[in-house]
Design goal:
This protein is mainly alpha-helical. Helices cover 64% and strands 0% of the residues. α1 (3-24) packs antiparallel against α2 (30-46). The protein is elongated. It starts with a helix and ends in a 16-residue tail after the last helix.
Amino acid sequence: MKTESIVFTVAGSLILTSLALAHWVDQRWLLLTVFVGLNLFQSGFTGFCPLQRILLKFGVPKGGCCTGDARKN
């Protein structure tokens, strides 16, 4: 798995988890959804993603499903 795929998976998981927690526990969990959404929004414009930087430091290969290099494994 490459960084882009992991970022998409983590972001989607956090959004779905926070929506479930907001429904069954407390609506303030929606703030996590807002944070993830804003982070995805800004990374679309700036290209800076904190999770991707962390993954690169751990040695995860750069790239992902949408960059055209997913089949080069």
